[in-house]
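Vacuolar iron transporter
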Amino acid sequence: MAALRTCEQPSLSNLGMSIHVTNKVEKNDQIQGTAENEFDYSRRAQWVRAAVLGASDGLVSVASLIMGVGAVKDDIKAMLLTGFAGLVAGACSMAIGEFVSVYTQRDIEETQMKRETRMRESGDNEEETDQREKLPNPGQAAIASALAFSVGAVVPLLAAAFIRQHKLRLAVVAVVASLALAAFGGAGAVLGRTPPVRSSVRVLIGGSMAMAITFGLTKLIGITGL
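Structure:
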C-alpha cells in the first residue's frame, strides 16, 4: 500500500501542474484576443483609405497616360515625359484635394460634436476627448495621398523606362500595373482587416478598365485624325 501511494503521488502532482499550465495559456490567449478585439480598426480607416486611393490613382493615372501616348507614338521619351508630368501634377492634386476634403469632413464632425455636447445637461470631457482623437487628420491624409500617389506612379514609369521595343513596352506596363494594383488592393485590405481577395479584384478590374479605355480612345482618335 505504501508503494502504491508513493506511485500515485507524482501522478496527481503532474496532473495539477498540467491543469495550471493549461489554464495559464488559455488566460493569455483570452487576453490577447480581447486586446485584438478592443483595437479600433476604424482609426486606421482614414490613412489607409488615403494611401490605397493615392497609390491606386497614381498607378492607374500614369499607366493610362503611358498607354494612351503609346497608342499613337513609338517615342519612349514622349511616354516617359508624359508619365513624369502626370506623377508631379497628380501628387500635388491629390494632396490638395485630400487636405481640403478631409478638413471639411473634420469641421463638420467637430461642429456636430460641439452641438451634441451642448445638448447634454453635463458635458463628459473624457468622452469628448475620445471623440476628438477619432477626428480625421487633414495633414496626415494629404501627405499619405501624395506619397502614395508618387509610389504608385513610379511603378509604370520604371516598367517602361528600360524596354526599347514599343509593343513589348506597352505589354510590360499593362502587366506590371495590373500586378501592382492587385498588391495595393490586398495590402489595404490586410491593414484594414477586410477580405483581401475581394479588394484586390475590385481594384484590378477598375484599373484595367481605365487603361483599356484610355488606350482605345486615344488609338481611335489617332486613327481617325481628330
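Confidence is low (pLDDT under 50) at residues 1-22, 31-39.
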